[in-house]
Amino acid sequence: MKDIAQLDGIDRRILRALQQDASLSHAALGELVGASQASCWRRIRALEEAGVLKPPVRLVSPAHVGRGVSVMLQVRLKSHAPSEVEAFEAFLRGRPEIMECHSMSGDWDYLMRIVVADVSDYQRFLMEEMLRLPNVAASTSHFALSEVKYTTALPV
After folding, report:
1. Which of 36, 67, 106, 123 is the most exposed place for a label (fewest CB within 10 A)?
2. Structural Rg of the chain based on CA atoms
3. CATH number reported for the structural domain that contains residue 39 in this entry
4. C-beta neighbour count of 156 within 10 angstroms
């Protein structure tokens, strides 16, 4: 992987620009960052090969596709045996409403961001899916009232 110290000013400007608009052409990107189209193409390829840049995606507005409710769910497991954790994490990876999941330190084992259509949709997921898993000891849910800040852009 490309070490952060190896990123020069142009690399950093490319990363900032692409995080704002991944659809920029190499020519437009070159003009924006002060490099040639060919140089931008080579740098992007190198950043991709180094694992710095992930594949480009288009972000979908949750509310516009009927997923306007965002819930933060914390879960505590009964057992941390490797087979139990693997089974739980396999379940998590297979659930499309779970947008993010982090294994955590502290009182709770996992923190997830879940998007659903409405409260009853979440209740169904929680009561009929999550809490029926044999290794789930406890959970707590926090409903987002509004989105104060959301970004996918990392400071580079």
Report:
1. 106
2. 20
3. 1.10.10.10
4. 13
Say whether both 43 and 91 belong to one domain.
no
**Spatial separation of the C-alpha atoms in residues 11 and 150, rounded to whole Å:** 24
* Beta carbons within 8 Å of 68's beta carbon, 6+ residues apart: 62, 115, 117, 118
Q: Which residues, at least 6 apart from 121, have a Cβ–Cβ distance to it below 8 Å?
A: 69
Q: Report the alpha-carbon distance of residue 152 to residue 32 in Å, rounded.
A: 20
pLDDT digits (tens, 9 = 90+) for 53-67: 999 999 999 999 999
Identify whether the C-beta of residue 50 lies closer than 8 Å to the C-beta of residue 25.
Answer: no
CATH number at residue 95: 3.30.70.920
Q: How far is CA 4 from CA 8, 35, 82, 127, 156, in A?
A: 9, 20, 33, 44, 9
Q: Which domain holds residue 121?
A: 62-143
Same domain (yes/no): 38, 75: no
